[in-house]
Amino acid sequence: MNITVLSLFPPMFDGVFGQSILKKAQDKGAVTLQVVDIRDYADNKHKQVDDYPYGGSAGMVLKPEPMFNAVEAITKGKQPRIILMCPQGERYTQQKAEELAKEEELVFLCGHYEGYDERIREHLVTDEISIGDFVLTGGELGAMTVIDSVVRLLPGVLGQEASHVHDSFSTGLLEHPHYTRPADFRGMKVPDILLSGHHAKIEQWRDEQSLKRTYERRPDLLVDYPLTKEQSAFLQTLQREKLDS
Ligand SMILES: C[S@@+](CC[C@H](N)C(=O)[O-])C[C@H]1O[C@@H](n2cnc3c(N)ncnc32)[C@H](O)[C@@H]1O
After folding, report:
1. What domains can be seen in the chain, in order of their start residue?
2. What's the pTM?
């Protein structure tokens, strides 16, 4: 996969792209990550990329020319998804990460200041993504978040066993709890079942814990979740326990 980010602050990406899974994914050849300075595509003498809003109001607005110029130069002959980071966009989910991970080429546009000229949204982009109902200073942190979540899904990036298939949201539920050594830490003990070596029972415990955790923390995820007969029965037990408590 090739990912290009358009930003007014390219150095912000140095740390994140140069560490951990994003670095490994590049080293393995699973992804190329490129950050382009929008200012390089400004077509005026002073490399101005923003201007006052028509109609007047506080803040500056990103001009259309640099964004259009940059996208046209980068995408020559290709038709990649062009993703605008935007608090007014579709709220980002694991399902969207899985969808984007199937693409060969992605381009991210990071806004700044008060926002960007509306013609960018209307005529340049294919997707608008919000990483949550809050406002960041710029699209960079959002783009990093989306890129990280997409790249870890690419084949081979997380190693032989694709551990992300068990991650929260990938299954539709929250993931079960994890424990590691020591089995007894200051009197806080690891559940006996995990030390039993009984794989089928451990799987059942994990499945139930995943359901319990989702029921307690994110019951909204259960609304459309296709429960098995066993899961329905376990959920009813949890509901009865709640009523009795
Ligand atoms: C200060 S914000 C502009 C907010 C805009 N005035 C509004 O109210 O919708 C500047 C830029 O940060 C990015 N941004 C802010 N919040 C975001 C969010 N929740 N998700 C994705 N990008 C965000 C966008 O690229 C946005 O253009």
Report:
1. 2-151 (3.40.1280.10), 184-244 (1.10.1270.20)
2. 0.95
